[in-house]
From TrEMBL:
CDD domains: CDC_Septin. This is Septin. Gene3D superfamilies: P-loop containing nucleotide triphosphate hydrolases (3.40.50.300). SUPFAM superfamilies: P-loop containing nucleoside triphosphate hydrolases. Keywords: Coiled coil, GTP-binding, Nucleotide-binding. It comes from Takifugu rubripes (Japanese pufferfish). GO terms for cellular component: cilium. One of its GO terms (molecular function) is GTP binding. The keyword Transcription does not apply. InterPro entries: G_SEPTIN_dom (IPR030379), P-loop_NTPase (IPR027417), Septin (IPR016491).
Length: 456
């Protein structure tokens, strides 16, 4: 099947003849390479005697593409309140999101919304992804991570679909990010380190289009200096931003002019103001009105033209052929796939699978052995610990036993002495009682004698 982007460029009426020639040439080479009849003998050109009809190829492609519809995915990265949602609404002339986001998010998250738009019978599935809470945390070190992860996740989903046996790429909802609008705060000074770090992390994964947000907050002369400063900072930090392509002569001039206007300074507003006898999108201030679509006021029109009308297809193409290709190559290499083996022979999938399987089994065995060793070591350690504890317990038991015996001995001695004392006491008691009885008896006979004497 022919790539979709060829059809789309035909649709736009540019590059048409060149790309269709390319497509036909591509198909001819494919047939030549794969068809047994053609594989041995080169094609010879023959003049046509009359009209055959393959000049309708462009129309066929256009019809097919229009029926299928198009998809475009934009990622808006920038601090909360920089006008991301407003710009999207202004750009597509509609109202997308609901509530504005708060500044108290604990981390950066990405919110994705997909919309079906239609313009002159051409359907566009537009996905707008917004960074929520970007730049709102005190520690911004990891702010870029969720964005990188999100972009990679979309590439991974596409790769998984590609690798499936039964793949449905023709009606697959492609969520790969085609353009990343990076919103720069209109400080007039320089880029923040958060901006540089984030753009650097993203530049090999997505087409970055930097824009100066809320550019009505900065004066004309300051804006010119600010643009130069941003560009030089991007260059000195090696940040690759998306350049509008200049290889296609039909758009080379406009694209190279527009490249010199980067980063675009934009103003967003969905508010309509009456100007003369027509309504225009503008922001009204006590001192005047900023018209969004007036090129003397801001670069909004330039952005819209470049992003949607002229280069939307190139953005999609760059995403597929450059950024996705890089992701796919790294991922497949990571999985052990190669195009050729060390002897420069084509690498077979079966061999790769076997090699990877053996490698994996080897690693598994190594891990198993390590775990076994660790387990034996742990058991030994535990055994030693238990033995130590047992020894301690024995010692404690002996100590307690001895203590108990000593105590018992002491108690027995004490009991014996008490018993002796009791016996002694009993003896004394008996002696005392005896004495008392004797005394009583002696006392009784003396009284009798005295009575007898009295009676006498
Ligand atoms: N001065 C100025 N204000 C803007 C512009 N675009 C949006 N705003 C205002 O900035 C505030 C935040 O905008 P919003 O789109 O919610 O920002 P987001 O958090 O980045 O999505 C709103 O009050 C907008 O009206 C602009 O270009 N210039
Ligand atoms: Mg918003």
């Amino acid at each position: 099947m022919l790539p979709l982007y060829l059809a789309v460029t035909v649709l736009k009426g540019r590059k048409a003849s060149r790309n269709v020639t390319l497509a036909v040439e591509e198909e001819r080479l494919f047939v030549q390479a794969h068809h047994p009849r053609f594989s041995k003998q080169p094609l010879s050109s023959v003049p046509l005697a009359g009209h055959v009809g393959f000049d309708s190829m462009p129309d066929q492609l256009v019809n097919k593409s229009v029926n299928h519809g198009f998809c475009f995915n934009i990622l808006c990265v920038g601090e909360t309140g920089l006008g991301k949602s407003t710009l999207m609404d202004t750009l597509f002339n509609t109202k997308f999101e609901g509530e504005p986001t708060q500044h108290n998010q604990p981390g950066v998250t990405l919110k994705s919304n997909t919309y079906e738009l239609e313009e002159s019978n051409v359907r566009l599935k537009l996905t707008v992804v917004n960074t929520v809470g970007f730049g709102d945390q005190i520690n911004k070190d990891d702010s870029y991570k969720p964005i990188v992860e999100f972009i990679d996740a979309q590439f991974e989903a596409y790769l998984q679909e590609e690798l499936k046996i039964k793949r449905t790429l023709h009606n697959y909802h492609d969520t790969r990010i085609h353009a990343c609008l990076y919103f720069i705060a209109p400080t007039g000074h320089s880029l923040k380190s958060l901006d540089l770090v984030t753009m650097k992390k993203l530049d090999s994964k997505v087409n970055i289009v930097p824009i100066i947000a809320k550019s009505d907050a900065i004066s004309k002369s300051e804006l010119a200096k600010f643009k130069i400063k941003i560009t030089s900072e991007l260059v000195s930090n090696g940040v690759q931003i998306y350049q509008f392509p200049t290889d296609d002569e039909s758009v080379a001039e406009i694209n190279s002019t527009m490249n010199s206007h980067l980063p675009f300074a934009v103003v967003g507003s969905t508010e309509e103001v009456k100007l003369g006898n027509k309504m225009v999108k503008a922001r009204q201030y006590p001192w005047g009105t900023v018209q969004v679509e007036n090129e003397n006021h801001c670069d909004f029109v330039k952005l819209r033209e470049m992003l949607i009308r002229v280069n939307m297809e190139d953005l999609r193409e760059q995403t597929h052929t450059r950024h996705y290709e890089l992701y796919r190559r790294c991922k497949l290499e990571e999985m052990g796939f190669k195009d050729t083996d060390p002897d420069s022979k084509p690498f077979s999938l079966q061999e790769t699978y076997e090699a990877k399987r053996n490698e994996f089994m080897g690693e598994l065995q190594k891990k198993e052995e390590e775990m076994r060793q660790m387990f034996v070591q742990r058991v030994k350690e535990k055994e030693a610990e238990l033995k130590e504890a047992e020894k301690e317990l024995h010692e404690k038991f002996d100590r307690l036993k001895k203590l108990h015996q000593d105590e018992k001995k002491k108690l027995e001695e004490k009991k014996k002495s008490l018993d002796d004392e009791v016996n002694m006491f009993k003896q004394k008691k008996t002696a005392a009682e005896l004495l008392q009885n004797q005394a009583q008896q002696a006392g009784g006979s003396t009284t009798l004698k005295r009575d007898k004497e009295k009676k006498k």
